Fold:
Amino acid sequence: MTGTPDTPNTPNAPSKIAYQVMWTRLISVVEEQAQALVRTAFSTSVREAGDLSAGVYNDRGEMLAQAVTGTPGHVNAMADAVAHFMRRIGVDTMADGDVYLTNDPWEGTGHKHDITVVTPSFLDGRLIGFFACTAHVTDIGGRGFGADANDVHEEGLYIPILRFADRGRVDPTLMAMIRGNVREPDQLVGDIHALATSNEIGQRRLTEMMAEFGLRDLNGISDFILSHSRAATLERINALPQGEARGHMRIDGYSAPVDLHVHLRIEPDRIISDWAGTSGTDRKGINVPMVYTKAYTCYALKCAIAPEIPNNAASLAPFEVRAPEGSIVNAVFPAPVALRHVIGHMLPDTVYDALDQLLPGRVPAEGAGCLCNFQLSLRPRRDGPAPDGACRAEVLTFNSGGSGARPALDGMNATAFPSGVMTMPVEATEQVGPVIIWRKELRPDSGGPGQHRGGLGQYMEIGACDGHEFDMSAMLDRIDHPARGRRGGGDGGATRITREDGTPMRGKGRQFVPHGGRVKMAFPGGAGYGAASDRDRALVHRDLACGYITPEHAQRHYGMTTDEIDNVLARASKGERI
Amino acid sequence: MAKQALRLGVDIGGTFTDVVLEDGARRVSAKVLTTYAAPEDAIIDGMHQVCARMGVGPGQITQIIHGTTLATNALIERRGAKTALITTEGFRDVIEMRTESRFEQYDLNLTLPEPLLPRHRRHVLRERMDARGQVLIPLDPAAVDALADELEAAGYDSIAVGLLHSYANDAHERAVAEVLARRLPGVMVSLSSQVSPQMREYERFNTTIANAYIKPLIKSYLGRLKARLAAQGADCPVFLMHSGGGIMSLESAADFPVRLVESGPAGGAIFAADIAARHGLDRVLSFDMGGTTAKICLIKDQSPKTARVFEVARSYRFKKGSGMPISIPVIDMVEIGAGGGSLAHVDALRQIRVGPESAGSEPGPACYGRGGKRPAVTDADLVLGRLDPDGFAGGAIPLSPDQSRQALSDHLGAPLDLGAQDAAWGLAEVVDENMANAARVHAVENGEDLSDYTMIAFGGAAPLHAARLCEKLGVGRCLVPPGAGVGSAIGFLRAPFSFEANRSVFMRLSEFDAGVVRALFADMAAEATTFVRACDATAPITRDHKIYMRYAGQGWEIPVPLSADEAAAPDPAQILARFEEVYQGLFGRAVAGMEVEITVWSVLAATRQDPVDGLDAPARLHDVAAGTMRPVFDPALGRRVDAGVVARDALAPGARVAGPAVVTEDETTVVVPASRDLIALTDGTLILTPKEAEA
Structure:
């Protein structure tokens, strides 16, 4: 149908254009793959919050393209996964119709709640590549999603790399084992089918594309993509000043505060991030497998250095990540890892602490970092008679604090960084179970002061419906270690979590809340950038008018006079544009 | 029909206002420049032009159907009224916190769209409903009175009221409205339980605020328009095209102006649906490409696909999530920044990128010779031989191929070491691939496979790119209807009067209450029918019942149509069977043994359309030889080919033109690549078919 060259090195112009079209098409193929997953998955973490990833690989297991839909934590983790599948399954034994899966935290994407499914792709009987996708499922058995496990075995069912389908036939023994070990068997089995369907859609579109362009294998397009990506990434890296710097950040952790240390070296053709000096493994489930550390280290660098170069094996390769075994960022089996995101989401800010010394004016101040998530296990009250219709339910919510101020912009209010997931609507959450969210709104004064203000965190207040009590599994950090300002900017507001009467609660772990009790939370703000005295007066006025800052804060940090404050508030009360 | 209907369709677009006048037999059209300061001026001008050409007076017009980008533009340009929000205490920032996510994950300097109302215009009241509509905290009328004092002092023109779970129980919103009506009689009020009674607070509040924000502007415009038309003698009823592809009264439009968002493109989809009906096509890909954007819509069984949420004013390269969600019934389409004026550049990866930035009409593409230096899609089309430099817009705008070549060489050729023609090829391929990708992803989001679809192409730039898009999508046939340049305005005259009533009432099939469901359907049917009856006092009205269902715990519902009988005597077993049938069709397999739930209920009332007569196939095909030839670049072959040049008005029914060829007319050019032939049908539609598919 088309006059496409079949060798990658044809120097004439048409091949460049044809290959560019094919590259764009491959990104569209994996986007279709991701959309098919969103449309058919059961867990709301996938459908509503977008906690997933999808990609296509060549026959060497190198990732060629990754869907735009998805979250950064899965990026490199999944990029490496296919190589493990090739080794464990054995390429010689792979057949058309096979589908493989795992939830191995070290060979998948960092915790057992992520299921990775890999499908080999055959054309005319020859293996030409792979499709892979990953999704965060609601339940995998064990203790449930939380920090409290003492080792990985308590965190749920383990599925080593196995055949889910052998030449098209689903393994009934495996399915029975999975069903027997989780709280929501239909949902999990449905999700696994959705992952397999997603790869199948990708495979179908790839076959159509290869027919259209007259391709018999992916070698030519693979070389084109990888060589272009590598060249573009190296061009970016080599344009940077060479040098090294150290970054550090201390956060709450679980059993004891955690120190994150990174040593960054920009060299010709590569950037090395070494996490030597970082705290050791915690005894509870906040430890991070190396794949996840790689994912967020690399994500931070890519955002700052080569944001528009698509993710693939070659564009990721020049970012080398190292961490000592047994550290909290290179936890080894059988360390518990369910909440690896709490630490993982703090890695980019640590990287930026170092990068800011090498590339001043490019990276933001520290932000809230990890998502402000909690899971509720609600049930009928046991301290008194429960009303008719009282029920049990598991409710998981994703929420965000403020992001750090940027060199030329304020931080973003209540917006996830570095995570890429969304929150769930309050009205939808209250439909799922007997929970009432009494408050979910911005938290004034929590954005660190500065020439550019940190993003605001948020307040949440929750309780059960009448007749219910609940356990709350908290996943919060930055109670004792708020986001730190950059270049004279102030710190962001710290996390707070208390009962309705002000009794403090713990930031992590499962805690009981009796009938009638409520939990009040203040999620952290991002830090400021630059001196507050340099802030544009018009923006200070806007912040006061909008209630992003209170009059006291305006006076203390921005030196506003009482007259100035009264004037702004009077105009605000009239609804004037400020 | 007893009285001869004379109907006027008017579409106000970004550049042109299209006016179409039609009686039973004839149709005339006019294009006049949009007059931003007083949009009604262009309408009056256009109306006089078409009346003169048909030899009638404005007083003879029996009906005017109007669609406009005014609502969309007011939202994009933030030119709305001084508006306040009243919401539930604890939820002041719903529209500002959005989904708490970033729509572009690698941009450290991302700027989120500003909420429509700044925080100090958002006010709270202590009150609370739960998810079932039970009152948790009663509303205190005295508190509303106190708030009214504050709002009065601030001098707001318009107020939006959005309270949590008001879709389940609107009592508190109505109570607030009563106080406001008493205390602030001159202020317009929009209630979320009326504007968009659906679950999910971010979408509902934002939609209500958008409605309140543009209400004073649109209400006053519609009032002026009605008066101006009457003063010119056109005192017939005026109706508005709404986003869902139906027609509503001028009064409804003034109360719910947010329903006018994207009414022009909706008219285009109705136009394509009408063509689909005339040609008996069940699966159609509507492709509407103008100067700035391309719109792609799926039309199954001669009805455009509809959705319940639309995103307006995308602020970041048309990227999903960068705009404001509006939850109203809309025709589901994708719009991307790909039009004749879309500009190209080379990015850091040495790849050609096209759009969404557009040259607009000033300065226009480089070939217009009005100072545009960067290459646009039209420049590539010109250099590839698709356009006749002396025949563009009927010769009104002479094009300069030299300017195009210069722009292509400077901006694409030099950095990529390509000649002007290869640069043009690359540009055209990239924009075509962008549109093809948008179509593919849209299809998969809807569980559709495009290979058995037929394309209908309209809008000035579409016929130049349609055949290549078909090649890329594996689509066989493509129709280019007559009047393609004013497709949306013609579409207005084809649309039924319709209204879709929606309710978010959550119900599990295991707790199915037939009595509640019957009452719900009856209530919605009455609401929708009353609405339609106000537009047309006599026409028969049809009702379509639809429910949105999912497995318990899922976040995405699928629409399940019910027959009138099924809605009148609802039975959970039957409804489960219908759900499983639809689910299987979309996703391959149903999942046994899981709880199923219903989230949204809808009744669509519409005037019944006269059945469309099928078209006779041309009696005999005859080959038409081209008078002249010109070299046209064929991207599938990767080289220039000698293409025959044929004038469209020289093609009688049954005329066949073998590709490669170009068929020229004033508003556009139909490109027939080497892979396809073109046949003229009895209604003047041109059809492109792959050569190998012919008998």
Notes: Residues 201-231 of chain B form the longest helix (31 residues). The mean pLDDT of chain B is 89. The CA atoms of residues 506 and 599 of chain B lie 5 Å apart.
